[in-house]
Amino acid sequence: MHPAGLFITFEGIDGAGKSTHIAALADAFRAAGRSVALTREPGGTPLAEKLRELVLNDAMDPLSEALLMFAARRDHLQQVIEPALAWGEVVLCDRFTDATFAYQGSGRGFDLEVLRQLERWVQGQPGTDALRQPDLTVWFDLPPAVAAQRLASARVPDRFESQPQAFFERVAAGYAQRMEGAPERFARIASDQPKAEVWQQVRQAFEQRGWLQPTEARA
Ligand code: TMP
Fold this sequence. Notes:
Bound molecules: thymidine-5'-phosphate
Strand content: 5-15%
Low-confidence stretches: none
Order of helices and strands: EHEHHEHHEHHEH
Mean pLDDT: 95
CATH topology: Rossmann fold
Structural class: alpha/beta
Oligomer: single chain
């Protein structure tokens, strides 16, 4: 018997600082004896990584962008996420469908009803009405003005990172709206704080759910 799989996703506007905390969580779960699948969207499979290159770099209309995100997601779910969950692994996924609602929906202004339909097609579970959804979504909530400062010193920006602050204001509002629709699925992390304090909040979200044992804080 293996433990039940856990599907955890991480969200936030560009520059919100997810990466180091995802890596620290992977270490914490491994230290607790769990198998961890560390993955990301768009991406996570050879096909989805090719789609990532296109969607981050090539100009396209919002419907094409949304379709490519969901095409990549479908492959990722079938090839990586569902098998890993079936094996009882902890799947730590850097972004998932909330990003499509926040970026393509709220950011670009694309029709949310079309996105909901795509979500049903792509995440539908065979033989039931249920959708595959994360067990927990960790949302790194950072004011867009702070994220903009962090991004200014970053590498060459892609099609999303190069958007103006007003775009990220809409994306952040989109995340807030997704959380309102399913509050029990989200842990909102106040991310405008020193890294060690952000990590404390992240760790606590997992301890509260009984998924990690309380330990000394670490960054
Ligand atoms: P990353 O840089 O955090 O890996 O994310 C890649 C970019 O893709 C990021 O700017 C957010 C964007 N994105 C969307 O616009 N829609 C989506 O569905 C996903 C998963 C990411």
